[in-house]
Amino acid sequence: MRESIQKVLPAMFLIGLGISSISPITNFMRGCNIKGNISVSTGDKLYHLPNMEDYATTNIDVSKGEKWFCIESEAIASGWRKAPR
Question: What's the pTM?
Answer without folding.
Answer: 0.67
